[in-house]
Write a structure and sequence with these properties.
single chain, mainly alpha, Recoverin, domain 1, 2 strands
Length: about 160
């Protein structure tokens, strides 16, 4: 029989780990690990700058990074990271959460992302998609004539199901 992992209860409050499903916690852990570029167990300004650079955004202002770090009550370890997401996601619907994830790749807020770009990101970052998974996604959501993916429609269908005519 495997030993039980001890769960620390936060005095007076609820345990942040109980807010999420185990699979979600694993996904947050993967995101945290990707962002913790220097692998010291904390996300700091340098890690954020490197993460933005990896996403193709090179000229992030220092003030912008400081604002992000200041949102945390202290050094950002995984528990703090999870707590911050818990607070941000409280009351948001799944569609909004998914839309916000896509907006990272759409800083102008056009509602569309170049299909080639999203394909490259999905195949090279985090839980890498296979060519088969990419084919399935584009079969369900074909890019438009300009080669853009309408992610607002994609998010709607993910959270509400197919539209009925």
């Amino acid at each position: 029989q495997a030993p039980k992992k001890a769960k620390k209860k936060i005095e007076g409050g609820s345990n942040v780990f109980s807010m999420f499903e185990q699979t979600q916690i694993q996904e947050f852990k993967e995101a945290f690990t990707i962002m913790d570029q220097n692998r010291d167990g904390f996300i700091d300004k340098a890690d954020l700058r490197d993460t933005f650079a990896a996403l193709g955004r090179l000229n992030v202002k220092n003030e912008e990074l400081e604002e992000m770090v200041k949102e945390a009550p202290g050094p950002i370890n995984f528990t703090v990271f999870l707590t911050m997401f818990g607070e941000k996601l409280k009351g948001t619907d799944p569609e909004e959460t998914i839309l916000n994830a896509f907006k990272i790749f759409d800083p102008e807020g056009k509602g569309r992302i170049k299909a080639d770009y999203i394909k490259e990101m999905l195949m090279t970052q985090a839980d890498r998609f296979s060519q088969e998974e990419i084919n399935q996604m584009f079969a369900a959501f074909p890019p438009d004539v300009s080669g853009n993916l309408d992610y607002k429609n994609l998010c709607y269908v993910i959270t509400h199901g197919e539209e009925k005519d």
